[in-house]
Write a structure and sequence with these properties.
13 helices, alpha/beta, five-stranded parallel beta sheet, 420 residues, 20% strand, Aconitase, domain 3, globular, 2 domains
């Protein structure tokens, strides 16, 4: 089928070809909710007075405000826990047993190539890194899925993004997606599907693809999807999952796409997104001196083991500036365990970092690192809106883990080479 990947996926779910902007009602393979979004879904679902469609096609993950930071979040967490136990939800992840929702979903193999997956969180598009259609929905839509196993969709137009060349050292998926967002703007892919074709010399890692698809929403995209290739194959092989041939989807012909964007990654340098939009990008080497008070390594965007390894490579044998607090939060318990086994935790501890159990924490201004008035933070997270991580006059700068680690050492935003 020589169609865009998105249309191939919907064809397989509804049994007929679909057109741009067509409204369809489709079966959904998996739904996801968190302690931040699932309470409202529970309330709306219970109004329907019906049985849960399936306890096997729903993942519930405690990650946003855990461990609970106050009585209100403790009550929400309890509501989620009680509902999940009562309804025998198979894929329920308690604090200490899972981690940040999107990384847990990938790590647990809960989203397969060719699937349609929805989640009550805007960064659900992360899972497209594994060759599927994944998108964020509201809590009320999640309640509808819980009751029926289906949802309606408007078929998005697809944009083909072709990645060529060889990334320079310390250029990561974060820099590639920030480059794209800077190029097309925060509305440049509004309600479109970004379909990535990786023609780079050595192929981007799954960690890079996770970062890229995670931030597809930051330029308005409905989803981001990488076509199936040897990297996808290797990822599922490591999970001991066999993927059927019909799920190994490739991009369609160019004339099936709304737009074609070519990116030569060899021309991209480490990038920082300046306040207050992810599209406000600049090469790190071109910015003026920017003092920081906080550095954050983690989040669903860059909380993977590869991200932690890269940051530790920069920090080994060094000490965080006395003017900076460095917060490190691994994405999942498995990643935390690997960090301990590989000596990465020791590197962070010796450097003077504060390390927390897997949670979303400071990314959304939840807890574990709220910014005070006028403070600046360089972060591996995905958004730098006004007040995103704290007081409204605080500033957030987005960058890859190597840049964040180096900046924590120097006390100002800088390239990794400046501290090596």
């Amino acid at each position: 089928m020589n169609k865009a990947i998105t249309k191939q996926i919907f064809y397989s779910h509804i049994g007929k070809e679909v057109a741009d902007d067509e409204l369809v009602f489709a079966n959904v393979d998996m739904g996801m909710g968190t302690d931040a979004t699932f309470p409202l879904a529970i309330q709306e679902f219970e109004k329907l007075n019906c049985r849960l469609f399936s306890g096997n096609n729903l993942a519930v993950i405690q990650d946003h405000f855990v461990p609970a930071k106050d009585i209100a979040t403790a009550e929400y967490s309890k509501m989620v826990r009680d509902f999940s136990v009562k309804n025998k939800i198979k894929n329920y992840f308690e604090v200490g047993k899972g981690g940040i929702c999107h990384l847990v979903m990938m790590e647990a193999g809960l989203c397969k190539p060719g699937d349609i997956v929805v989640g009550a969180d805007s960064h659900t598009c992360t899972y497209g890194a594994a060759g599927l259609f994944a998108t964020g929905i509201g809590s009320t839509d999640l309640a509808a899925f819980m009751a029926t196993g289906k949802l309606w969709f408007r078929i998005p137009k697809s944009i083909k993004v072709i990645l060529n060349g060889t990334p320079s050292k310390y250029v990561q998926g974060k820099d590639i997606i920030l480059h794209l967002i800077g190029k097309i703007g925060v509305s440049g892919a509004l309600y479109k599907a970004l379909e990535f074709i990786d023609n780079t010399t050595d192929k981007l890692s799954m960690a890079d693809r996770i970062t890229i698809c995670n931030m597809a929403i930051e330029c308005g995209a409905k989803t981001g999807i990488f076509e199936y290739d040897e990297v996808t194959e290797g990822f599922f092989y490591a999970l001991d999952m066999r993927i059927e041939k019909e799920r190994k989807l490739k991009a369609g012909a160019d004339n099936e796409y709304y737009e074609i964007i070519n990116i030569d990654v060899s021309k991209i340098e480490p990038i920082v997104a300046m306040p207050f939009l992810p599209s406000n990008v600049s090469a790190v080497k071109d910015i003026d001196e920017i003092q920081i008070q906080q550095a954050f390594i983690g989040s669903c965007t860059n909380g993977g083991i590869e991200d932690m390894r890269l940051a530790a490579e920069i920090l080994k044998g060094k000490t965080v500036s006395k003017k900076v607090r460095l917060i490190v939060i691994p994405g999942t318990q498995k990643i935390l365990s690997l960090m301990a086994k590989e000596g990465i935790l020791e590197v962070f501890i010796n450097a003077g970092a504060s390390i927390a159990s897997p949670n979303c924490g400071p990314c959304l201004g939840g807890h574990y690192g709220i910014l005070a008035k006028g403070e600046s933070c360089i972060s591996t997270s995905n958004r730098n809106f006004v007040g995103r991580m704290g007081e409204k006059t605080s500033k957030v700068y987005l960058a890859n883990p190597a840049v964040v680690a180096a900046s924590a050492v120097k006390g100002m935003i800088c390239l990794p080479e400046e501290v090596l």
